[in-house]
Model the fold of this input.
Amino acid sequence: MVTLGFGVLMTAVASGTNDVIAAITVAYDLLVGALFVPVIGAMLWRRGTGAGAIASIAVGAATVVIILILRGIDSDAPIYAGFGMSLVVYVIISLMGAGRPELRVES
Done:
C-alpha cells in the first residue's frame, strides 16, 4: 500500500513538472538527502539497524521536500539539510536499537 501511495505521488509530481532539469534536480536532492546515509551506513557501520535506516530515509526525504519548497529548486540547502538530518536520525535510532548480531562460526 505504501508503494502504491508513493507511486501515485511521484506520478503526480512528474506530471506537474514541465522542466526535465528541475525533475532531475529534485530526484538528485532526494537521492543524496534521504538515501545516501542509510545505504552507506548499512555497508560500513555494524551498529546500523533497519529501523534507523527507515527513520533516516523518512526524515531526510521530509527535510529535503520542506527545504525545496521554502528555498526553491536552485538551492543546495535541501541536500545539506537532508543529509545532516538523515545522518543524525540514522545514528540515534540505530544506537537505541540492538544492532546486528555478531556472526559466529561454531565448529
